[in-house]
Amino acid sequence: MKRLFILLFLSSVSFVAIGQKVKRYDLHVKDTLVNYTGKTKPGIAINGQIPAPILEFTEGDIAEIHVHNHMHHETSLHWHGLILPNEMDGVPYLTTAPVKPHSEAVYRFPIVQNGTYWYHSHTMLQEQSGMYGAFIIHKKEPSRVREKVVLLSDWSDENPHQIERSLHQATDWYAIKKNATQNYFQAIKEGHFSTKLENEWKRMMAMDVSDVYYEKFLVNGNLSESVSDLKPGEEIRLRVINGSASTYFWLQFSGGKMKVVASDGADVVPVAVDRLIVGVSESYDIIVTIPEKGSYEFSATSEDRTGSVSLWLGEGSQKAMKPMERLKYFEGMKMMNEMMTVSGKMNDMGMNMSLQQMDMNAVMYPEITGSYSEEKNKKVEENHHNHAETPEEDKVTLNYNMLQSVSKSKLPDVPFREFTFELTGNMNRYVWTMDNKTISETDKILIKKGENVRIILKNNSMMRHPMHLHGHFFRIVNEHGDYSPLKNVMDIMPMETNVIEFHASENYGDWYFHCHILYHMMSGMGKIFSYENSPVNPELGDPKKALRKVYADDRRFYLGAEIGLESNSSDGEIRYSNTRWMLQTEWHVGFKKEYGYENELRFGRLLGKNQFWMPYVGWDFRYRPGGGHETNLFNQASTKDQRSVFSMGVQYTMPWFIVADARIDSDAKIRFGFSRDDIPVTERLRLRGMWNTDKEWTVGAKYIMTKYWSLSTHYDSDMNWGAGITFQY
């Protein structure tokens, strides 16, 4: 151990000296096979299980954790929420050397706090594959209340790297799986045709509250669990951890109110609520009381309401929660239309939004807007408990302003250094940034030991973000002032502005501050706080090379393709792109000699926060035997049938996602064009069209069968009509 961390304030997280007890765990990391959905799929297990084993300590212990990597690729473990030496934090190449294949690493650090925490891989997308587990630190005084760890997670049979690639290709397959495409047919059916038109006029993607479709949600690695030996009147403390990669969960209890007593490991003044949402990577300690004989449901429902898991508490007949119905997406779309301008900027709408006090998504909740299905309600009542149901308008939903630290959290009386960060994003290309820059595009943020740091966060994106700071607790500044709650994760909703503060109590090191939605983090949504004059960590080798590996995550290029094989021709496109750059090729190859063939290649730079602009350079080659002598709309001799030229131009995404293209080639020929792909007519039917000043035009349609292929047809002004199959990747 190179040094001992001293916790300077955090009175709700106990001060301890070095403990006398060393507690050792050996964790064996192996590739494995799992079956949650009826299909056998690869995962990553620790000690043969998903989730990983619960690690339990008592404040004052010294943790000694041996990680044995039996895989053919490197790994890491981050101890989420723990105050520890920087080199033990577990972010590969930033704070800690990765655990190389078939090798062992030892993490050793003092336990200087208590509470509910967790640990997970910080290498690539391994967390999504099963590398996560609970990390529980007990107080020195034993608790007299029974406890149960409730570790929530999400599972997809799809390879996480394919999920990540697909998100960057703007696929709507996940929306199809969730019945959330918000197509024009559905818009007309629900009386929201004008809402859909305005939504696309403002160049906004379909409304959603989550990015990925998950086949299953899990509680402690299971589809459901139970604790049956609980008697009426008995209390149980649920240590709830959201260990999912990208899912928020609504928590409810059919036996009455829940008492929240801690958040992210730090104690709070108990507050009774009917429901709360737990953000990705957050934890809450919740005490519930079994009201009478029966088995009561503690339910966790995904925010997009595609699934839920249950923990049954008590013995007897099951007393189920009323299920949460499908979201009313068009109501959310209507609200976002009011919040967004056509230029892509967010209106403040004259409201002071902060601390989860105004849930803009509430317009989509059927239980609040009064459209709960009578049929489903009747069905639930047949198996519902007799406990008095709280009227919907009287139900209490937890927000951050209700949390109060049990003791003063006021920072030391020293100068503040203040930063303002804007959370920004582009759903169409899945670019998530802070101040419109990825982590690789910004310098480290220097701070000094002993000063206070204030961060003003403004969420100007359409998604909520759980922002996590490594190695520190921060205060979420709320109405409780000196008793504002301590956390290490803050969920910030769209349009909100929140203030967090922390004391720079560490001696050295780089500390990651990032969105904890796994795929947002991987796309670059984060910052690095670096203590001035920090020594070089010798375990990382060359610091410049190590940092380049950290930055490589958001610089990665992703391959996408659409290849049509129809009766008249093959039309296709291949894209190879990252956050800012795109290499793109399009072709049309006729299956009749007189149709000829053509190809256009572009290499462009995407500009602006919303990336509406892409200047490019390119090459255009085409040949069609017997092409006529025509003129374009500018009375220039057309070379559309015989040319091999270099070009330069610019593409601009207009309202309704119409892409305008203006270019000039090396023969001084000018061409303008307009195109639109993927017009969502129904859930699976898409239309497309193209026209340019060379008097070329195309219209087409496809019916999506699976994620990777569609039935398609199109008419081309040069190659006539055709039908067949289109493959998409």
Automatic annotation (TrEMBL):
**UniProt keyword Transmembrane, yes or no:** no
UniProt keyword Phosphoprotein present: no
Q: Which GO terms describe its molecular function?
A: copper ion binding; oxidoreductase activity
InterPro entries, per the entry:
Cu-oxidase-like_N (IPR011707), Cu-oxidase_2nd (IPR001117), Cu-oxidase_C (IPR011706), Cu-oxidase_fam (IPR045087), Cu_oxidase_CS (IPR033138), Cu_oxidase_Cu_BS (IPR002355), Cupredoxin (IPR008972), CuRO_2_CopA (IPR034282)
What residue stretches are annotated with the Plastocyanin-like domain? 29-141, 148-301, 421-530
Keyword vocabulary terms for this entry: Copper, Metal-binding, Oxidoreductase
Please give the name of this protein. Answer: Multicopper oxidase
